[in-house]
Amino acid sequence: MLYPIINLAVFALLIALLFKLQKAKKTLSTQVFTGLGLGVAFGAALQFIYGVGSAETNETLEYVNIVGYGYVSLLKMIIMPLILVSIIGAIIKVKDTGSLGKMSGGIIGILLATTAVSALIGVFVSNLFGLSADGIVQGAREMARGAALETRLDGLASVSFADMITSFFPGNPFADLAGSRPTSTIAVVIFAAFVGVAGVTVARKEPELGASFERFVDVAQSIVRTLVRMVLSLTPYGILALMTKVVAGSNVDDILTLLNFVVASYVGLALILVMHLCLLAFNGISPLRYFKKVLPVLLFAFTSRSSAGTIPLNIDTQVKRLGNGEGESNFSASFGATMGQNGCAGLYPAMLAVMIAPTVGINPLDPSFIISLIAIVTISSFGIAGIGGGATFAALIVLSALDMPVALAGLLISIEPLIDMGRTAVNVNGAMTAGSITSKWLGHTDSKVFGQDEVPEAELRNS
Hints:
The chain is mostly helical. The protein has helices spanning 2-23, 28-50, 55-94, 98-128, 140-156, 161-166, 173-177, 184-205, 207-232, 235-248, 252-257, 259-282, 287-304, 311-320, 326-336, 342-356, 367-383, 391-401, 416-441, 447-451, 457-461. Keywords: Membrane, Transmembrane, Transmembrane helix, Transport.
């Protein structure tokens, strides 16, 4: 018991150091990078001294998780209220319901198009690195995971594409505000859009009632944004704890065994990020300035492995640092967490399919196979939220559609967390890219905000 107490005392000192930086009004990027570095160092020290899975490490991480997953839970707490009031407020302020179609169409179109290109990148890197499922040994964990995936697939077989789309609609908005379904986020977006349009309609017919409703929404937005600021001020501490757990719990032997796939995955993810930056540059948005401003968001997505949990920080960064319109920021962050995910639904299923193809007699370089794969990946990425999945369920749908053995999707269970970190960061960046480009198209971007250098987080809280 003595060693865990010493470990937690060290962890407390690291938190105190981050608090000192926050009091000194350092920028959010500085705080996040410091938390990331301290988390890596502390996690590596735990693994080096005690080893992976030791009693001392597990007991220490049990309490470190209070900070890490407590922070993620607080973020999830404010997701639905933030989406609801922000989208209603954005529609009321714009007073142009006709732009909603252009906005949502632009965001969804970019998400799906970039997912299709991400699948093509997955095909490219898999063939470049010569990835194949033949060389991967199935251990007990991999076999158990494969059997579980086959069982889950049986339950998904009856879910059609039409069922997935139907699940987006908010039959019970109160249940969706509680996050009762995998598609609750999109359902709340749709509900908020209807309420916003209704508010605009009332304002046109009865200006006095419209003004009262707008005032109510303004008050609600002010309260929710203050709540968001309070939670986001905890970001460096959350990243410290989450990164400690990731590093301390990573099995180095498993990583080295599947190093080729890990490297190939991150090369593919890097190419997707380059694609995002090229799209931004093509639309007149400085890639370097953009990347500097969104880096804290990507780092949190990387450590938390939660696209949904990153929504508040995603929206806040788009509005306050990128200068995107509130409508585009909220729509892109919400849609991007549940559909068209470039890393989880685009790159990963494509790489897995190319790896498995030779084992079932398919040439992974066959143009017809590649075209079919990209089409299936793109369509399935639009409906992943309907079955509550992520990368694993995206792979299940794609492999099943291609008539490949879904049990082989369990081969990479040992390195799944390591790869998922990069995939989540790419997913979130894809959402912010879609929001930035759409906001630029519709003329809603505040160029003055985008042109400003980053200010300390303490100043942002007072803005």
